[in-house]
Amino acid sequence: MDSSRTRCCILLLVLFGISIQYQCSASGIDTNQAVLLFVNASEASARKIPDTLFGIFFEEINHAGAGGLWAELVSNRGFESGGSFVPSIIEPWAIIGDDSSVIVSTDLSSCFVRNKVALRVQVLCDIEGANICPGGGVGVYNPGFWGMNIEQGKRYKLVFYVRSEESINLSVALTGSNGLKKLATTTVVAANVSNWTKVLVLLEAEGTDPNSRLELRSTTKGVIWFDQVSLMPLDTYNGNGFRNDLFGMLKDLKPAFLRFPGGCFVEGDYLRNAFRWKETIGPWEERPGHYGDKWKYWTDDGLGHFEFLQLAEDLRALPVWVFNNGISHNDQVDTSSVLPFVEDILDGLEFARGAPNSRWGLVRAAMGHPEPFDLRYVAIGNEDCNKPYYLGNYLKFYSAIKEAYPDIKIISNCDGSSKALDHPADLYDFHIYTSASYMFNNANHFDGAPRSGPKAFISEYAAHDDAGNGNLLAALGEAGFLIGVEKNSDVIEMASYAPLFSNTNDWGWKADAIVFDSSQAYGIPSYWMQHLFKESNGATLLNSTLQANPSNSLIASAITWRNETDKNEYLRIKVDIFLTVIISALKTYTI
After folding, report:
1. Once rounded to an integer, what is the mean pLDDT over residues 312-335?
2. What is the arithmetic mean of pLDDT over 155-178?
3. Are 129 and 123 in contact (CB under 8 A)?
4. Which DSSP string corresponds to 229-276?
5. Fewest CB within 10 A of the end CB: N or C in the chain?
């Protein structure tokens, strides 16, 4: 039927009821009840849900980006993860050969100013003579992030920088995890590489192995330096560097916004390890990378400020930038000294929104995006409300941003759901990690929130306590909470689950919406639960009433939404039945 007829039918059925039966049986409980849900479909009682209500939150945790969404296959590509001092640890790089044939070390001879560490490979053996190199040669290999996923027929771009006083004859290969099976090979021969030289090679895989590795070998005596070794599949989303399957799972959620890049990742345990946007832009070879001390691993920052903005654009989601406000978990800058941080963030806003001929807009344009990004939201810090310098620092940022960009909505870390904030803000942040039952029972938390003033941004929610690796119990608790979010969407502007991703090899936080390894991914029940709410953005909330006993184990909502594919309008009813003894079901009806 066409959309106008659908709407007409809804208006004719101004008030209707749905009868639901549920049964609970456990020790001491024997209940069989009928429940009535009344939905008022009149326009007078309806209310539009914000277009921005449900989105996603990306944090670099659990190797969500490095070794995950960001498709770079080489781990520690610049040999910097051991620090800027040499000799340094080069893991997961490993040596091919023994001490009699090759010596591998690091020095500070790189041509890149902000990441000076380079890999020095001294080949002691030769193609002939007393010390002949073993078959295939000696050198180094990189297994990626717990294995590189190499797929037959696909092409991969290998880039590395090399230097040697002698001519080079390098064997480059993608192999199985033990180095025996060759999936792709080529040879790099050069006579004059006394200065750092960029090498670009395209490799086409002749086999498949999710636990592959990259090898660089030589059979010629001499010293070879390597730096900035990158291997990327050519089939990333739109060529923008995002792993296709993981990106697809995000896009399927139809997120209205993308909050990035953290989280605690933004703060760091110490300010020296906080996310610095200026160190994550420009050519990837020149980015120094940094150690994320909160989640305890190195990131080369290939997924940087520009890429996050590009990710939001590719998802057709609004970017929400969370920036450091001079505060970490263990140290902070007092308000009298915070001005450099403020100026840095103003530069970051110009990078995102400035004209292509402005100072930082010019940098963005040089990276391939002359048009400004649609950045409308920023958050000043993360979970910093009660720290000594937060309010003073916040006001410095707030005033400067509003003066330069009065249209940008600014998010405070302080909870305004119970009482009014004592400082200006457009939104306030609200985080909730708890049990499934507490989450469900907090569906009405915002019923008493102030109906005027800043709106809520529930930027991190999860039934974390009893979710394990992800289960239906948690999803049902979260669904009940989100039904409450829908009902209070007059005072709630945004909501997002956390965390978003986890690599199975670095499960530092559980549960996570999407779980993956080098070649596979799946969504936990909490991920699929979010699919039930993805049509709510911009939908119409209908007034609904449940008649149930006990009513506190049931919650329901009703919306009408327009399908842009078939241009029809649909009625969707969600009913969440949550009992403390047994969980029955989350039922969704689409009419």
Report:
1. 98
2. 97
3. no
4. EEEEETTSGGGSSB-HHHHHHHHTT--SEEEES-SHHHH-SSGGGS--
5. N
Average pLDDT estimate for 415-421: 94
Cβ-contact 559, 544 below 8 angstroms: no
* Per-residue pLDDT at 28 exceeds 90: no
Question: What is the residue whose two structure tokens read 């049509």?
Answer: 535
Positive/negative CA dihedral, 366, 370, 374, 380: positive
Mean pLDDT on 84-95: 92
339-353 and 359-366 are packed helices; what angle lies between their axes, rounded to 10 degrees? 50
Residues in the chain: 591
The residue whose two tokens read 């709410």 is: 533
Q: By C-alpha distance, which of 375, 393, 399 is closest to 320?
A: 375
- Residue linked to tokens 């989640």: 295
The answer to whether residue 397 scores a pLDDT higher than 70 is yes
Nearest to 492 by CA among 507, 476, 481, 502: 481
pLDDT for the residue 441:
95
| SS3 assignment, position 112 | coil
- For residue 464, give both structure tokens: 């974390």
Using CA atoms of 102, 105, 106, 110 in order, give the dihedral in degrees to the nearest 10. Answer: -10
E strand spans, 274-364: 290-292, 297-299, 318-323
What's the chain's average pLDDT? 92
The answer to whether 225 touches 119, Cβ cutoff 8 Å, is yes
Give residues with Cβ within 8 angstroms of 92, minimum separation 6.
75, 76, 142, 143, 144
Amino acid letter, residue 197: T
Separation between Cα atoms, residue 219 and residue 458, nearest integer Å:
58
Q: What is the pLDDT of residue 547?
A: 84
How much is the pTM? 0.93
* Interstrand relation of 501-503 and 514-516 (parallel, antiparallel or unpaired): parallel
